[in-house]
Specification:
CATH superfamily: RutC-like
Shape: globular
Strand order of the largest sheet: 1-2-3-6-4-5
CATH class: Alpha Beta
Oligomer: single chain
CATH topology: 60s Ribosomal Protein L30, Chain: A
Number of strands: 6
Structural class: alpha+beta
Largest sheet: 6 strands, mixed
Strand content: 25-35%
Number of domains: 1
Amino acid sequence: MSDIERIDQSARRSRALIHNGIVYLSGQVPDDKSTDVADQTRQVLAKVDELLKEAGTDKSRVLSAQIWLRTMDDFAAMNAVWDAWVTPGRTPTRCCGKVELNDPRCRVEIVMTAAL
């Protein structure tokens, strides 16, 4: 049985965990929710970068991303930031949808998995 390494664990969740060479990130949201979706997306992707680094990998190894938006009106602005962030030629699988997020000020939440 493989060990499971948990990163930033609380009673409710781990921000990330590593199992069998895969890093699973929980949903990452912006800290400053007073900004537009582009800035919120940059904040989230910076958190992703930090977690991936802590786990021993980076964005070029992302396998899959789930992006949740408060409104699909934010799709183009989020995509502009996303497109600048991803590693060219190493884009992950991805889905994006509109959901009711737990904080109405939050415009984006992103869940990812990555290989070590």
